Amino acid sequence: MKNLYDLKRFGGTCYRYTSGRNPRTNKDGINGLVVNPKDAKALSQAILTLEQSKEKRIEMGTGSLEQFNRLFLHDKVVGNYITLYKEVGKRFAAKSIK
How far apart are CA 50 and CA 41, in angstroms? Predict the structure, then answer.
């Protein structure tokens, strides 16, 4: 898998640090595990948790897939862009009329 998008699309689970570029993608215990970047013990525990519990991997993988379907399906993304462009158009038109 090349990126987080692909991981979610295929129902993968992962861990992430509390800091970083994708703070909203993982909900701790729902679709992955979140650990403090300076806590090696927590990181190792997160890795072991995912490695040792098939049930948790399946549960969190299902959460990832549900999140992907809710946020990233083509129709949803296109719909969000259409809504955004309509809003920008309304604001632009309102300023042009003045």
Answer: 14
